[in-house]
């Protein structure tokens, strides 16, 4: 599910199962609420991220249950030169009251695709079940910067 260039979006009370790729991807949007989702992806399938806020402002992800073969939440903000040129950070992101299962990846990842920067990201009161790592970071490419990253 990809939501692009949108304001005042709420995605709530859905069950998403067996997606072949990212489950929820709000991009270039503001005032996004993702609440009460159940995301069930096979833990042996790669690239099945749960929720990937990408270049969004004022996003709240809460009260979700995520099982993933990749990152449960991957914070993104553009990719390579395009992301640098577009220059739209993900900022004012709150992640709270989530339950995660991700045996092989991070439950919350500061993803490789973050050329636009990441600012004011807060995660609290979440529970990881069988994680390999609670918070992960994938190193940026040469073109990308983490200078605006705060966690």
Automatic annotation (TrEMBL):
Residues 132-151 are annotated as: Disordered. GO terms for molecular function: polygalacturonase activity. Pfam families: Glyco_hydro_28. InterPro entries: GH28_Enzymes, Glyco_hydro_28, Pectin_lyas_fold, Pectin_lyase_fold/virulence. The keyword Hydrolase applies. GO terms for biological process: carbohydrate metabolic process. Keywords: Glycosidase, Hydrolase. It comes from the Eukaryota. The keyword Metal-binding does not apply. Belongs to the glycosyl hydrolase 28 family. This is Polygalacturonase.
